[in-house]
Amino acid sequence: MYYENMFMELYEAALKTAKLLASIKPGEKVLVLSDTAIDRKMLEYVTAAAHAVGGEAALMIYKTQKEVDMEPPAHVAAAMRESDVIISFPLMYILHTKAYIEALEAGARILELTGMDPEMMIRLIGKVDYEAMCELGNKLRDLTAKAREVRVETAKGTNLVFENDPKRPVYHNDGIVKEEGIYKPLGGQISWAPIEETINGVMIVDGFIWPPDELGVLKEEVKLVIKNGRIVEVSGGKEASIFKKWLESFNDEKMYYVAHASWGFHPNARLRGIPLEDERVYGGIEFGFGSQSPKFKGKVGSAKAHTDVSILNPTVYFDGEVVVKNGRFVHPELVELDRKLKG
């Protein structure tokens, strides 16, 4: 396996995860949390790194769930509530569960690394220029927060428009957790909730859809028609039919509503069927449907599940000004950082 030949690089990346991203301080109670879908050796490296920087480190692994956002076992939830820092790896993420929310309310800070594998840890944490990536992220967050009308277009037919609410937060998920009661995923992403009833148009989804498990990186495009923030039509081929049936299976109207929009800008991210990485593909834009985290201050709230879809190489306009074009950030405030990160 990859880490067996690059064990030094993997431990270096694990140490960077513990020290920089999780910001572990001596004496803190650290829980490395996973399901059985994740590489155990990598988990052991991260646990050892958490110990090396002074944390009281423990590793807890439970059986992989059938769907995302299913509650973890009760004793796992209890351990989460008692932890100062949680480094969360489960492939079937638990981001919108009661256990996750209660852990945050109890003061835990959570580094969300759902689905990560050793190769990803080396490439996306160990070998990235985090300082430059975070600088681009900060500037992109500020531009997004100032924008009122957003238009997303692609050569394949995406034509979507929506408005942002200046009172709703825009989160730069830089992957560095320092404050109590917060969670952040891996760096290279910005997320926010547009005003639901203003979201209208067509999404031609050509990157990934996940869940359901039968999908992932798409072999064919899926067309979603959005009216007032809600999916009103799903069309395409076999994969579109799978997605449509999966949405219908919940018998939950909220599964059709846009929960958030997200930018991807990780310079080393690749589209490869792992959501944590797929969502960060450079210059892409992603939308979530279903359960909405309370932090977004939106109107959707809880649903029975959550799914994400991505659009590759879009052209995105903020109030008529081009921000990204064909997968590269071209806005005057971003173009130099774009060149530094991508050449």
Textual characterization of the structure:
This protein is of the alpha+beta class and 343 residues long. 50% of the residues are buried. It has two domains: 2-126, 3-Layer(aba) Sandwich (Thermophilic metalloprotease-like); 130-342, no CATH class. The mean pLDDT is 95. The chain has helices spanning 2-5, 7-21, 40-52, 74-81, 98-105, 118-126, 130-146, 238-249, 275-278, 335-342; strands spanning 29-35, 56-62, 85-88, 109-112, 149-153, 159-163, 170-173, 183-185, 189-192, 200-205, 208-210, 216-217, 222-227, 230-236, 258-264, 285-290, 306-311, 315-318, 321-325, 328-329. The strands form three sheets. It has an eight-stranded antiparallel sheet with strand order 14-13-10-6-5-18-19-20, with helices on one face. Helix 2 (7-21) crosses helix 6 (118-126). It contains ten helices and 20 strands. It is globular, with a radius of gyration of 19 Å.
Please describe the biggest sheet, giving its number of strands, its sense, and whether it closes into a barrel: 8 strands, antiparallel
> Which sequence of strands runs across the widest sheet?
14-13-10-6-5-18-19-20
How many separate structural domains?
2
Radius of gyration based on Cα positions: 19 Å
Q: How many H/I helices? A: 10
Order of helices and strands: HHEHEHEHEHHEEEEEEEEEEHEHEEEEEH
Low-confidence stretches: none
